[in-house]
Amino acid sequence: MQAAAGLLAVLPATALAAQPTPWQMWSQPAATPTMARIDDLHGFLTWIMVGITVLVMGLLGFAMWRFHHRRNPVPSQRTHNTPLEIVWTVIPIAILLVVAVPSFNLLYYMDRTTEADMTVKVVGHQWYWSYEYPDHGGFGFTSFMKYPEELAPDEPRLLAVDQPLVLPVGVTVRLLLTASDVIHSWAVPALGVKSDTVPGRISETWVRIEAPGVYYGQCSELCGVNHGFMPIEVRAVPRDDFETWVESARAEFAHAAPPVPAAPAPGGPPPVALAAR
User: Fold this and answer.
1) Which of 100, 127, 170, 257 is deepest in the core (most CB within 10 A)?
2) What is the arithmetic mean of pLDDT over 104-120?
């Protein structure tokens, strides 16, 4: 992959690298409108849960204090209270509606786009990813995890790859996702994307990255023995730099179609793609 590494040299250095950090308490900074909305919904739901928790704990504390046997030696024999039963039925229904409306709005918003500027096809394999650019000449390439001895000083272990997915900033990108063998899941937290890749089916989602940077993710569906070793690296660059990279990548990858894994022997284990690298 020396030639592929040379292609990355034309891309500018990026200051933002979205990846997990020690003792992280919240999600990674949002890099797309979808992730920003997910963060907003998460914060909204968190406050609702805090309110419910405070209310329930307050009612329990009041009940323990008010109906202690010293203050209430003769307990009430009442078994029904129709107005109260109506209230504690209506309030949860109202809470569910308050939660459901923004949730469904977000689900439809993040599902797919009708006005994409470009399309990228993502294919999951055991245990690596391949990417194709049908709107830019149809070239494609594979993306393998880097071994520890291949890492640059600032690259994270188990997340850096030899050939990242390169996307332009501020462009609506349609993602078509599928798999060649088993179910995988293409997940990049900072982009707000987590979509299963299913053999024989094409899933669709979209991203629009707002800031240049390097965004890391991983396969999030248990897919075999090397499931933990198929990371995702997305490098977002300005449009002019993306067009420069496309010209170089088209020449390098136009006739290098992603390899098709060999069929397993009858009754034998599936081939290990990493060993063929």
Assistant:
1) 127
2) 89
